[in-house]
Amino acid sequence: MLQMLLIFLKINLIFYLILRPVNGNSIKSFVNPSMYVENNKLQKEKALALINEFSENLKNISGKCMDVGCGPGDVTKNIFLPALNSNAVVIGTDISESMIEYANRMSSVKNRLKYEVLNIETKQLPNQYISEFDHIISLHSLHWCNDIRQAFKNIYRMLRSNGTMLVLFAATEDIFKILDIMAQDKDYAPYMSDIKKYTWPFQDSVNPRSELKELLEEIGFTIIHCSLRETHFVADNPDQFLSSIISFLEFINKMPWDRKEKFKKDLKQKYSEMNSCKQNNDTIILDLYNVLIAFAQKRIP
């Protein structure tokens, strides 16, 4: 069980169905923050690559900044903060109280970096955040949103005039296609009526980049950069990898034991057929998925 949890933590960036908010909270609310820090190497690598790509845009930012979805704060402290001007100050925010408590204890920097609890989808944005920030960043978090439009509206409201936003979040993942197919199976359909709640905001988009760009422009952003990029994840132990996914699918708990076992077998077979490949005579899972990246500005004449 512990081994499966460790695998889950390592792939948390990719599979939104694993990280889907449960009653308004991300799965991070139920994970030990220190264990999360020890197993988020993939997130750190992706974050560092993005920060390096936009380093010229970030290095001169010297005002007040926010990291939305900061988790335990290690990426905020060690990757985001050093990329800014030395006079910049940062507030890291997250919906998880346990993550924020850990971040303030382990990753705060006196007079420069602190952490506060905030649900980015709130429709009652606290006054102390409105028009307060020169830059807002969010890495690997916004795909958790049930209402991503509200999240971007709040980011826009929190930015000062001419403030900027840099976001990276997952867009599409093939496993959702498999779940959609299985939801049509008469054996599973009665238990999967809410399957759409497991999908990302842009999972069913014909053109995720264009739709994100249109959404941001409708809110008021001026787009500086917007791209859809393919990336990948390698799981060298397919059985444990898929078991970790299955363990977080809530609806299978409604199934009788024999139906549940059949579902697990079918999902593993379909997913492996789609993504398995050989490497040094071993079977591995090579999972391709897409991420959206946007750099935008709140320009007010």
TrEMBL record:
It comes from Pogonomyrmex barbatus (red harvester ant). The keyword Signal applies. Residues 1-24 form the signal peptide. Pfam families: Methyltransf_11. InterPro entries: Methyltransf_11, SAM-dependent_MTases_sf. The keyword S-adenosyl-L-methionine does not apply. GO terms for molecular function: S-adenosylmethionine-dependent methyltransferase activity. The gene is LOC105433151. Residues 67-166 form the Methyltransferase type domain. It comes from the Eukaryota. This is Juvenile hormone acid O-methyltransferase-like. Keywords: Signal.
